[in-house]
Write a structure and sequence with these properties.
A five-stranded parallel sheet has the order 2-1-3-4-5, with helices on both faces. Strand 6 and strand 7 (156-158) form a beta hairpin. The protein has 237 residues and is of the alpha/beta class. It folds into two domains: 3-128, 3-Layer(aba) Sandwich (Rossmann fold); 140-231, Orthogonal Bundle (Arc Repressor Mutant, subunit A). Helix 2 (34-43) runs parallel beside helix 3 (60-68), helix 7 packs across helix 9 and helix 8 crosses helix 9. It has helices at residues 11-23, 34-43, 60-68, 87-96, 108-138, 142-145, 177-187, 192-199, 203-216, 222-231, and strands at 3-7, 27-31, 48-51, 78-82, 100-103, 149-151, 156-158. The model is unreliable at 148-167 (pLDDT under 50). It has ten helices and seven strands. Helices cover 51% and strands 12% of the residues.
Length: 237
């Protein structure tokens, strides 16, 4: 179920939007200010954001600007829903980083069409990134594949350097390629949420892979996994 974050200081509009979107099968979280939206976003990243522009304390433009400055907020689909219909306002909204700008009053059908289109575009972008990563990983020799991890912040595939202390390479991990990527991220100390953002997968998928990794390696927790990695010669990058 896709999650939508609604940001508007009008409680009646928030209620109408929440009811309409939930009827369409979306999970909706609504807040009354941009500051609350930033807190909510950092606690639980949504699939798309619909925000007003004119709000007290922090307007929608500044909210979008701060959101886009965060690594986890750069690719989140963002829709402005505003009574400010001036051309310059619309241009400013797109310049700051909004994907769409709808004027109040609006048609719910148009908003739904925008939401569905942006979610689908986001899905295609993430799927293509994962596909490219899979191609790069699968092209590596088996002995290198075990040491590859994905750094999505720089959009690169990086192989951990071999140290002179290791006379032989560690044994290949009994993991799938997807589990191997989660393995390398985990032993670097990243949380499930951070790994999901770096690998473009859901936190639930990260937890599933992590559980599989622990089961296959006969370990109980992350601490044991990190200890195992160092004892077996898998260098922390």
């Amino acid at each position: 179920m896709k999650k939508i974050l609604i940001v508007d200081d009008d409680p009646l509009l928030r209620k109408v939007l929440q009811n309409s979107l939930e009827q369409k099968g979306y999970q909706v979280v609504s807040v009354g200010s941009a500051k609350s939206a930033l807190i909510q976003f950092n606690q639980d990243v949504p699939d798309i954001i619909v925000s007003d522009v004119s709000m007290p304390e922090m307007d929608g433009f500044e909210f979008c600007r701060q959101l886009r400055s965060q690594p986890s907020g750069k690719l989140i689909p963002f829709i402005f829903l505003s009574a400010k219909n001036d051309l310059n306002d619309r241009i400013q909204g797109h310049t700051i980083g909004a994907d769409s700008y709808l004027s109040k009053p609006f048609e719910m059908k148009e908003l739904l069409a925008n939401i569905e289109a942006l979610i689908e575009r986001s899905r295609r972008v993430h799927a293509e990134i994962v596909h490219l990563i899979e191609q790069l990983v699968s092209s590596q020799p088996p002995n290198v594949l075990a040491n590859i991890h994905h750094n999505s912040s720089s959009k690169q595939i990086i192989a951990p350097p071999q140290t002179e202390k290791n006379e032989s390479s560690p044994k290949p991990l009994p993991l799938t390629p997807a589990e191997e990527r989660v393995f390398w991220e985990t032993i670097q100390g990243f949380t499930n949420k951070q790994i999901s953002e770096r690998l473009f997968i859901s936190p639930r998928t990260v937890q599933t892979h992590l559980s599989n990794i622990l089961n296959k390696l006969n370990l109980n927790n992350r601490t044991q996994l990190v200890r195992f990695a160092y004892q077996q010669g898998y260098e922390k990058v």
